[in-house]
């Protein structure tokens, strides 16, 4: 049997075609693009840095485990925690970078970019924003963090029953997140035998809180709930303590950042978060904690874990899609999520509902001796 | 009692605004340069003081370092940003964009060096005690008021008695005449930037101790400084200082009657009212160019 012979013309044609063959081959090893829309500058940049670190460790694990046939590239866009730059960044991620998966944060910015991702059928995963109306924004918008309605439902009974704090005043940012928490407290407090004795809205850019605290003091609260984000949370806590408020300060998961943990004025403050036991026997959690510590020289916090999960989930789902021979895109990833529902993630098993909201256990934390201590 | 408490809070905020506004007004009045990066001088001074504090320096040494850093930044802006621009075309827009750009670069550099989080110094000076039923005052209030008062008196004496101060006022009125008399307008511009930027440092130090800061705080300070300069009357230093104090007090006592979210809007409401009813400001002076 004679094999195929290559004539001069054939060799010439193959030679001419070579430059075009190379890109076609390269295309198959082009990385998946994971976009991130985090505040990397401005007063909330501390969060952007924390979120990115969590995602970076997840990508490290996806690569180390050879989970996918193609590498994953993290493409970061600066949202500045504002809707307008987020929309610009989201359009770039979808139109230019062809992102397969976008990590989002902040309630207002998430709501601004959700329609763009929805049109492009790109999965958006939120691990930091907690506005209650983020549930069901789009079939392609998922949450791996408990939204504010769940956080308030945990904090209010704890305040009333464990701390006997019935009169609660609220300082909240003039933003969908703040409005959402105001609405939740209005209904949750009376239901649990408490009372919202005052609610004080502050603009996003406000820096001076002494006068606001004077108004808060007038309401004679047992506890003050702070519902803002970024540097403003810390500024409000300092203003409260400096201006004679000795009552309990409480908040939601946004208090789980280093600048509050290390601030003397925040000692004793309470906040809710997802359950995260770094010292337990759960293998993925231990691996995450160890690798995070090794890479960044600090123990991970809840936000780091959330965005680890948000990024790692892409690895789990894309692996399923690849194994089934499908193309990794929004629809195939969503179908894989709905077919599986339960995933082994940092903190334990995460289960998603029909709308893409991860159901998880919650805990109440206290800032004690510059540590976050789970107390309930 | 709420009114008294809000008034005292307003005085402290007003002292900060007055100091920064006076610095901005001095620079703008003397050089006609819209120094948008004045807020950046404030931020730099705040972080230098913070680093010095954390390094265990005595407070006075940290304050001196903060003043020097603010002055150095102001002078560098004059020498290496504004003067080259003015030498070529010197349009308002180019100066504005350049200053704005420098502000963003510095903000990011500070973020990289100091971290993106909220920073403050822990001091009993900012901790309030109840001096009357339901009226809380921190020692920092008196320090802020005394600092502002001493600096304004010193600045007024400098501008009226010292030859360099008189030269600065002359530069504001008629720069051509300055050259005719053989004075260096460049030297006086540098002096205006040095003194104007130095005035931002005490305000920044008070802010670090009371409110805390992050790298983006300069924008807000800048907006208030511009508002105070317009309300006080462009070209008037005492007008800017008085307007800064007035805006701080208005922002605070307005909370007696309006919701807390409107506190900062009050400053700009006052600004609009002046623009409509008294465009020349409180002590407006006729501009010669």
UniProtKB/TrEMBL annotation, chain A:
Coiled coil: none annotated. Residues 34-368 form the Leucine-binding protein domain. Keywords: Amino-acid transport, Signal, Transport. InterPro entries: BCAA_transport, Leu-bd, Peripla_BP_I. Belongs to the leucine-binding protein family. This is ABC transporter substrate-binding protein.
TrEMBL record, chain B:
It is a multi-pass membrane protein. Its main location: membrane. Keywords: Amino-acid transport, Cell membrane, Membrane, Transmembrane, Transmembrane helix, Transport. It is found in: Cell membrane. The keyword Cell membrane applies. The chain crosses the membrane at residues 6-28, 35-53, 59-80, 92-115, 135-159, 188-209, 221-250, 262-286. It holds the Pfam family BPD_transp_2. It comes from the Bacteria. InterPro entries: ABC_transp_permease, BCAA_transport_permease. The keyword Transport applies. Belongs to the binding-protein-dependent transport system permease family. LivHM subfamily. This is Branched-chain amino acid ABC transporter permease.
């Amino acid at each position: 049997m004679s094999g195929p012979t290559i004539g001069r013309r054939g060799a010439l044609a193959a030679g001419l075609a070579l430059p075009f063959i190379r890109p076609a081959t390269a295309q198959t090893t082009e990385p998946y693009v994971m976009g991130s829309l985090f505040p990397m500058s401005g007063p909330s940049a501390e969060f952007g840095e924390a979120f990115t670190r969590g995602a970076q460790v997840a990508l490290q694990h996806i690569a180390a485990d050879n989970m996918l046939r193609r590498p994953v590239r993290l493409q970061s866009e600066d949202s500045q925690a504002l809707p307008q730059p987020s929309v610009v960044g989201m359009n770039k991620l979808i139109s230019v970078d062809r992102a397969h998966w976008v990590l989002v944060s902040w309630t207002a910015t998430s709501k601004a970019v959700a329609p763009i991702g929805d049109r492009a059928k790109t999965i958006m995963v939120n691990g930091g924003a907690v506005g209650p109306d983020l549930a069901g924004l789009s079939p392609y918008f998922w949450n791996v963090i408990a939204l504010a309605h769940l956080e308030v439902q945990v904090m209010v009974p704890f305040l009333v029953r464990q701390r006997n704090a019935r009169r609660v005043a609220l300082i909240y940012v003039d933003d969908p997140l703040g409005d959402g928490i105001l609405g939740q407290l209005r209904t949750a407090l009376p239901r649990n035998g408490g009372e919202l004795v005052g609610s004080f809205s502050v603009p996003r850019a406000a820096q001076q809180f002494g006068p606001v605290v004077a108004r808060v003091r007038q309401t004679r609260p047992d506890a003050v709930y702070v519902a803002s984000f970024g540097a403003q949370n810390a500024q409000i806590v300092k203003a409260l303590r400096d201006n004679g408020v000795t009552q309990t300060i409480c908040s939601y998961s946004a208090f789980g950042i280093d600048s509050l943990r290390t601030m003397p004025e925040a000692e004793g403050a309470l906040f809710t978060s997802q359950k995260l036991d770094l010292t337990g026997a759960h293998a993925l959690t231990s691996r995450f904690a160890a690798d995070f510590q090794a890479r960044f020289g600090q123990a991970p916090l809840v936000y780091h874990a959330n965005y680890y999960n948000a990024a790692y989930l892409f690895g789990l789902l894309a692996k399923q899609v690849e194994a089934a021979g499908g193309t990794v895109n929004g629809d195939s990833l969503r179908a894989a999520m709905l077919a599986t529902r339960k995933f082994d993630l940092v903190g334990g098993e995460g289960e998603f509902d029909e709308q893409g909201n991860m159901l998880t256990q919650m805990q109440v934390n206290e800032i004690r001796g510059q540590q976050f201590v789970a107390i309930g | 009692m709420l009114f008294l408490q809000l008034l005292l809070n307003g005085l402290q905020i007003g002292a900060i605004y007055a100091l920064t506004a006076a610095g901005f007004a001095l620079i703008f009045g003397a050089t006609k340069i819209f120094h948008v990066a004045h807020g950046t001088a404030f931020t730099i001074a705040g972080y230098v003081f913070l680093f010095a504090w954390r390094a265990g320096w005595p407070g006075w040494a940290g304050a001196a370092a903060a003043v020097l850093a603010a002055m150095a930044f102001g002078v560098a802006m004059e020498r290496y940003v504004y003067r080259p621009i003015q030498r070529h075309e010197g349009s308002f827009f180019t100066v504005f964009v350049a200053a704005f750009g420098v502000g963003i670069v510095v903000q990011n550099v500070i973020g990289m060096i100091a971290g993106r989080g909220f920073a403050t110094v822990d001091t009993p000076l900012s901790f309030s005690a109840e001096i009357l039923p339901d009226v809380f005052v921190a020692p920092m209030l008196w320090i802020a008021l005394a600092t502002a008062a001493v600096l304004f008196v010193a600045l007024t004496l400098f501008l009226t008695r010292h030859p360099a101060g008189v030269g600065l006022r002359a530069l504001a009125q008629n720069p051509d005449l300055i050259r005719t008399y053989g004075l260096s307008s460049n030297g006086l511009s540098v002096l205006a930037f040095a003194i104007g930027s130095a005035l931002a440092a005490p305000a920044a130090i008070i802010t670090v101790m009371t409110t805390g800061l992050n790298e983006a705080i300069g924008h807000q300070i800048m907006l208030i400084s511009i508002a105070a300069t317009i309300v006080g009357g462009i070209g008037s230093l005492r007008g800017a200082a008085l307007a800064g104090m007035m805006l701080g007090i208005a922002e605070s006592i307005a909370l007696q009657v309006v919701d807390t979210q409107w506190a900062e809007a009050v400053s700009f409401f006052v600004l609009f009212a002046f623009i409509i009813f008294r465009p020349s400001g409180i002590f407006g002076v006729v501009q010669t160019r």
